[in-house]
Amino acid sequence: MYPLRCVGCWLLVTLAAVCTLGVQGSTAQEASVRVLFSGPASATDDLAFTADGKTLVLVSRSGTLKLWDMALHKERVAFNPARSGGALAVAPDGVTLAWTDGKGHVNLWEAVTGKHRATLKGHTDRVRSVAFSGDGKMLASCANDSTARLWDLATANEVRLLKHEREVGSVVFMPDGKTLATGDETGVHFWDLTTGKLLRTFDVPARRLVVTKDGKTFATACESDLSIWDVESGKVQARMTHKGRTYTIAFSPDGRTLATGSWHSAVKLWDVPSGEERATLAHEWPVHALTFSPDGKLLATATRNRWAENPDEGDVKLWELAPTKERPAKK
Questions:
Q1: DSSP of 24-46
Q2: Rounded to whole angstroms, how far apart are CA atoms 158 and 138?
Q3: Three-class SS of residue 314?
Q4: Which H helix or E strand runs over 257?
Q5: What's the Cα-to-Cα distance from 322 to each of 115, 225, 274, 285, 298, rounded to whole Å?
């Protein structure tokens, strides 16, 4: 029986979660976990930390944006701009939030005041992913209309249209500031930001795509299939399988761990680049979103109870992760 303290509608829980490791034999590790939200109206579509790690931003399935103060352990701001949730991105300065409304629009909001700044219109179907450029001057979006689009945030105008053969599931700015990566079921595509020219394609289905901060490695997910690739050589480094459809993936800030969340109600942590399973974090319901804190010490996960009468039931957890051990030098 775990100690539980209920304060209003918040649950604060501390428990020991056993993580089964798959590196150099079978050992065990303890991870501390705290539940921030649980129950009705807690299902979360996406979440992200601000760059300073002081705030966790969440967008609920019902369309409520919440800002959680990590130091005070309480909700600082909440506003309800729409009736449904969607994809989320936080600008590098933490001032602006980009959020999709399920209607093909991307909305820009001021994080502190909740003031609506602009609506970016152009997509004709559901937007699946949004991302800010490193300097915060541009936004990229991709959608089920088989396009990715680039937006100038100073004018809120579309400046580039990138056509794909299939629905586009992920969009990522590369660290060089010159390249955009997109993922769909036909592959991973790299585009020149200035000209819109397709530079390179990797033949691997990618409904979900993430890139390490140094831009040297990317990982993909499509259904239960996962892969890790070296960008420069174009070679696959590892192929893995996560039971159940994989909804969400993320690299740790140091690029040494890949986290994946699936329909099978579990988060798995994988070694990069070997692809060896390092840990499994069990959840009660399917995991729809996850993100690492900027210092890599925390992993935030969001679930949704797909079997409940109330479709908005779910929870959000914070996992305190043990430091990644240095790999032994190869002889």
A1: SS--EEEEEEEEEEEETT--EEE
A2: 10
A3: strand
A4: strand 257-262
A5: 38, 26, 19, 24, 9
Q: How far apart are CA 76 and CA 172, in angstroms?
A: 29
Residue 194 structure tokens? 């200035």
For the chain, the residue count is 331
Can you give the C-alpha Rg of the chain in angstroms? 19
User: Quick one: tokens of 276?
Assistant: 């060896």
Beta bridge partners of 280: 268
The answer to whether 60 and 41 have CB atoms below 8 angstroms apart is yes
In the block, tokens 């996406």 appear at 46
Say how far apart CA 159 and CA 174 lie, in whole Å: 18
DSSP-derived letter for residue 186 is T
Contact 153, 137 (CB under 8 A): yes
Closest CA to 211 of 189, 239, 196: 189
> pLDDT tens digits, residue range 170-210?
999 999 999 999 999 999 999 999 999 999 999 999 999 99
CA distances from 247 to 69, 170, 303 (A): 26, 12, 10
Please choose, from the candidates 221, 292, 228, 281, the residue with its C-alpha nearest in 3D space to the C-alpha of residue 254. Answer: 292
Distance CA 159, CA 180 (A): 14
Distance of CA 122 to the CA centre of its chain: 23
* Residue environment code for 28-65, b if the CB has 16+ CB neighbours within 10 A, otherwise e: eeebebbbbbbbeebbbbbbbbbeebbbbbbbbbbbbb
Task: Label residues 70-91 b or e (16+ Cβ within 10 Å = b).
Answer: beeeebebeeeebeebbbbbbb
Q: What is the pLDDT of residues 31-83, one digit of tens each?
A: 578 888 776 667 889 999 999 999 999 998 878 888 999 999 998 888 876 66
> Alpha-carbon distance 125 to 128, whole Å?
9
Is 114 exposed, middle or buried (CB count within 10 Å of its CB: 0-12, 13-18, 19+)? middle
**Two tokens at 52?**
């300073």
* Identity of the residue numbered 210: V
The pLDDT value recorded for residue 325 is 64
